[in-house]
Amino acid sequence: MRALLILYFRYFIGWDDSLSTTIYHTFVALCYLTPILGALIADSWLGKFKTIVSLSIVYTIGQAVIAVSSINDLTDFNHDGTPDSISAHVALSMVGLALIALGTGGIKPCVSAFGGDQFEEGQEKQRNRFFSIFYLAINAGSLISTIITPLLRVQVCGIHSKQACYPLAFGVPAALMAVSLIVFVIGSRMYKKFQPQGNVMAKVVRCIGFAIKNRFRHRSKEFPKREHWLDWANEKYDERLVSQIKMVTRVMFLYIPLPMFWALFDQQGSRWTLQAATMSGKIGIIEIQPDQMQTVNAILIVIMVPIMDALVYPLIAKCGFNFTPLKKMTVGMFLASMAFVAAAVVQVEIDKTLPVFPRGSQVQVKVMNIGNDNMTISFPGTTVTLDQMSQTNDFMTFDVDKLTSINISSAGSLVTPVTHSFEQGHRHTLLVWAPNHHRVVKDGLNQKPVKGENGIRFVNTFDESFNVTMNGEVYVNVASHNASEYQFFPSGVKSFTINSAEISQQCENDFKSSYLEYGSAYTYVIARKNDGCPEVKIFEDIAPNTVNMALQIPQYFLLTCGEVVFSVTGLEFSYSQAPSNMKSVLQAGWLLTVAVGNIIVLIVAGAGQFSEQWAEYVLFAALLLVVCVIFAIMARFYTYINPAEIEAQFDEDEKKKYLEKSNPYPKSDSFSQTQM
């Protein structure tokens, strides 16, 4: 569902890049905050199995609601192809996303911990393998979805007007979620289920609170220091609980630097997708959409997890290097940092190819001669001469206050001034067809066409208006010596038909466009030949994207390698270092770092307001590199434990104490009596 969420916000709801990115990361953060709630429900009340089932139902309902919210015809009462009440769609989508966040967040800590519960003591190797396969399975699903979901999105559907099929793209995951829930429930009898052990979290909070309060009471020097600050809770709470909380807090302390990794990782669904939209998707004979680039991550995960598990880690072990979980996570953070350096390099290359658009009080003007005479046009500080049916090579940039005079002249004719109030911050085209006949048209394109599509507009040089139908889209009443609005089309060759009373039936009126690539814009001038039939002259307004999406592969490779050694290891580490009654709680703590990471993106992106995107990438890379060094130092002082052994020791001690209480006068053996 996330594969197309940012595009749904951007192009269906109509939010800009900044707001779409903000809402996207807010949603992701919420998905990773709710695991705390799921862990509490599982460990304290319902148990992991029932929590997974009940919250999966909420999850499925939320997915269905967002599918309904994307139905264009829901509020398109006048059937013009645009929702009449976009606020209704926004409200429904927010409700759907809230339910999804509750559902997916609630089950996240339980699913991995429930899987870990199926293994016995001494099966650590098999449990590690399970976590790798578990992560592989998630990403196999992700791979399928990131290929199929965009294909579903580009289908055309609708009752009264045909639109990109977001309802289908959101609806299929809803149906699959329902199927997966049924499959999970069918296997109920095969699972090992542990009963929840009361409100563990409440005990933890109360114990920590008492320890802090008791330490504060005994802060004077006359009271001897204790080995650990939680030992101040020993007066009220049993030693087992205090020991379990020590295990959790030591791991939680290590989690403090981790959100920075997720701040970078989750940008592949937002900033990296938007970066791909400014690139060319033609890789060899394959053409891919910007949102399909995320499949690279999933493909590499499916490849890299088995390679790491079966080849890289054993090879490192044979070399005698102790590649501990925390060392793996440090390497993962470093690789993610380098991925953003690679993204910054790609962005610099993209920026070199992007057209310059007017800013602030600037305007840009291009002249297009659609007449049969040569024309000379004078601007402040520059003069251009155009042959018939030609245009200036580039847009000319002026400060709106200094664009005081524009004059048109031709051989043997008077000079004609152009009087027009140019709108600042916009591009304009000056159409000229005679010394005393001209028209200024506002282009309406202040950025490269989005989603890698191509903008096409038509200029009519006939005496009467005409209609043009291109690939199912209709340009209605293109006026004489005027330009239509741009309409946008995906890559490929498009057919179009011109309908005009001026065109003889003997004339050909069906044409084909040039091959449209990615992110370009063209003006198609419909001129009249000597025989009165139409001909098409094509002028480039915005050059197509030239930087290939294949250049994103190195950054995806580095990030994926970082994810494999960081995320899979982190899941297993969180489970292995947690006491038996707090497995879900510590998994939720791990997932909480993802939420904080997304909040960091919101803060940095909101506070920075970078004029250059590459600078934002470099900032994130530098921040993670600093955090990586801090984490490496913290990991150096961490001591690995086996919670099962510690708890077994407590069980043994409790058993001894119970035996002593139940038999306070043990019978002496014969040897002792002889000695007496």
UniProtKB/TrEMBL annotation:
A GO molecular function annotation here is: symporter activity
* InterPro entries listed in its UniProt record: MFS_trans_sf, Oligopep_transport, POT_fam, PTR2_symporter_CS
Q: Which UniProt keywords apply?
A: Cell membrane, Glycoprotein, Membrane, Peptide transport, Protein transport, Symport, Transmembrane, Transmembrane helix, Transport
| Localisation | Apical cell membrane; Membrane
User: In its UniProt record, which GO terms are filed under biological process?
Assistant: protein transport
Highest taxon of source: Eukaryota
**Gene Ontology CC annotation, any one:** apical plasma membrane
Topology with respect to the bilayer:
Multi-pass membrane protein
Q: Catalyzes what?
A: L-alanyl-L-aspartate(out) + 2 H(+)(out) = L-alanyl-L-aspartate(in) + 2 H(+)(in); glycyl-L-proline(out) + H(+)(out) = glycyl-L-proline(in) + H(+)(in); L-phenylalanyl-L-leucine(out) + H(+)(out) = L-phenylalanyl-L-leucine(in) + H(+)(in); glycyl-sarcosine(out) + H(+)(out) = glycyl-sarcosine(in) + H(+)(in)
Task: Indicate the transmembrane segments per the record.
Answer: 22-40, 52-71, 86-107, 128-148, 168-187, 298-317, 329-348, 588-611, 617-638
What is the protein's known function? Electrogenic proton-coupled amino-acid transporter that transports oligopeptides of 2 to 4 amino acids with a preference for dipeptides. Transports neutral and monovalently charged peptides with a proton to peptide stoichiometry of 1:1 or 2:1. Primarily responsible for the absorption of dietary di- and tripeptides from the small intestinal lumen. Mediates transepithelial transport of muramyl and N-formylated bacterial dipeptides contributing to recognition of pathogenic bacteria by the mucosal immune system.
Family under the similarity heading? Belongs to the major facilitator superfamily. Proton-dependent oligopeptide transporter (POT/PTR) (TC 2.A.17) family.
Subunit structure and binding partners: Interacts (via extracellular domain region) with trypsin.
Protein name, as recorded? Solute carrier family 15 member 1
**Organism of derivation:** Camelus ferus (Wild bactrian camel)
Organism placement in taxonomy: Eukaryota, Metazoa, Chordata, Craniata, Vertebrata
